[in-house]
Amino acid sequence: MSDQTQTVKTAFVLGGGGVLGAHEVGMLQALYEAGIRPDVIVGTSVGAINGVFAAAYPHDVAKLADLWRSRVVSVFDISLAKRVGTFLKSGTHMQPNEGLAALLAELLPVERIEELEIPFQCVAASIEKATAHWFCDGPVIPAVLASSAVPGMLPAVQIGDEHFLDGGLVHSIPVGRAVSLGAEEIYVLHVGRIEQPLTAPKRPWQLGMVAFEIARRHRFFEEMASLPKEVKVHVLPAGADHPVSRGDLSPLRYRDTSRIDVHIQRAYTASRSYLEAAAA
Predict the structure, then answer these.
(1) How far, in Å, are 20, 73, 167, 191 from residue 258 at the CA level?
(2) Residue 211 burial (C-beta neighbours within 10 Å; 0-12, 13-18, 19+)
């Protein structure tokens, strides 16, 4: 059971990015092989999913890797006909979240955030209050579902009197949260987008995707620019070396599971090299 009041020196910050979140699994593997352990894990969107498993099984990253290689397909890989049917019925989203909820219920060994092995927090966007809401205790599954409720893809999650959407709307890579918790050394795990330059949109429907990506990155870069001098941040490399195409920003990419092993291995190799150089 975690101690949510313990002193925080090292934090892992896991950002959002749908199925591209497999990159974060490779980063976690590299971190644990290097003997680096967190005092707190902070996550948003798919980073909340990865983060809660890392907090529940801190000594078994292989479990998370196996999960991505096998079970993620059943959660995200929904047929076009079913997506269209769900959207026509709901009017707001293309995929239900029951599959993810069932997966969390089956595999997480605890029911409450404060019962996790490592202290864990995740963020979601409150619709009614139009602000960020941090889940630091209470039932873990609704919190993770709220943090990963991608607009248009998954339904908003009601908790109490509020409805919540994806945490990436308010904190795509919540470095500032780790700083506010007192972390002195922060490891940023992300999906590779911040390493890649954006390309200008050429179609009307691409404008919204590019605008959202700018908003996602803007807060992260602002927080990085205003870090206290005593805080050291490591932005682990994902190994991505090509520009972000407009297709990469499409919500449909959230269900493309064809390159999961590539994402894991690429991020592991790049992050391992980075950590070896940092320790030299």
Answers:
(1) 11, 9, 25, 15
(2) exposed
pTM for this one?
A: 0.89
pLDDT of residue 215: 81
Strand residues in the chain grouped as ranges (E):
10-14, 40-44, 120-126, 131-135, 157-159, 162-165, 185-189, 232-235
How confident is the model at residue 11, as a pLDDT?
98
Q: CB-based contacts of 83: which residues, under 8 Å, 6+ apart?
A: 94, 95
pLDDT at residue number 4: 58
Q: Cβ(28)–Cβ(203) under 8 Å? A: no
Instruction: Count CA atoms closer than 13 A to 171's CA, side-chain side.
Output: 27
CB 112 within 8 A of CB 139: yes
β-pair partners for 139: 112
In this prediction, residue 17 carries a pLDDT of 84
Using the Cα atoms of residue 264, residue 238, residue 76 and residue 83 in order, give the sign of their dihedral: negative
Ranges of the chain with pLDDT below 50? 242-255
The distance in angstroms from the start CA to the end CA of the chain is 34
Cα–Cα distances in Å, from 153 out to 18, 30, 87, 182, 226? 10, 31, 9, 34, 33
pLDDT at position 76 is 67
Residue with tokens 């506010």, as numbered in its chain: 180
Inter-axis angle of helices 61-76 and 260-279, nearest 10: 150
